[in-house]
């Protein structure tokens, strides 16, 4: 049954990746009055779980956490903006919309591939069981 464990853990990981990307995309145009308060892009970090001789149930993908981007926060001079600081600057998010779109496409295709693996394994198991009935 480890094929199902691997495929489902990978699907869960890609779903987290899609949700994180959606959150980043939703905040691409947000602004703040301070650099510290500006939205920073987030990316999930994954690790591979490998089966060892003692525990064959630990296979698949594990989420190690979600990291926050340390890229520079853009600042724009907009003295009339209600959130502008005393110098007239507002601070935007450091989300790169093009990178996030590529990330979303990649995560969607990876999810789709793992769903296909899950479906194919299920079909093969059912056909194997049907062989025993004849």
Describe the structure.
The structure is a single chain. The protein is α+β, with helices and mostly antiparallel strands and 134 residues long. The protein has one domain (2-133). It has helices spanning 2-26, 97-133; strands at 31-32, 42-49, 60-68, 75-77, 89-92. The strands form two sheets. Strands 1-5-4 form a three-stranded antiparallel sheet, with no helix packed on it. Strands 2-3 form a two-stranded antiparallel sheet. It is elongated. The protein starts with a helix and ends with a helix. The model has no long low-confidence stretch (mean pLDDT 91). One of its GO terms (cellular component) is bacterial-type flagellum basal body, rod. Residues 5-31 form the Flagellar basal body rod protein N-terminal domain. Pfam families: Flg_bb_rod, Flg_bbr_C. This is Flagellar basal-body rod protein FlgC. It is found in: Bacterial flagellum basal body.
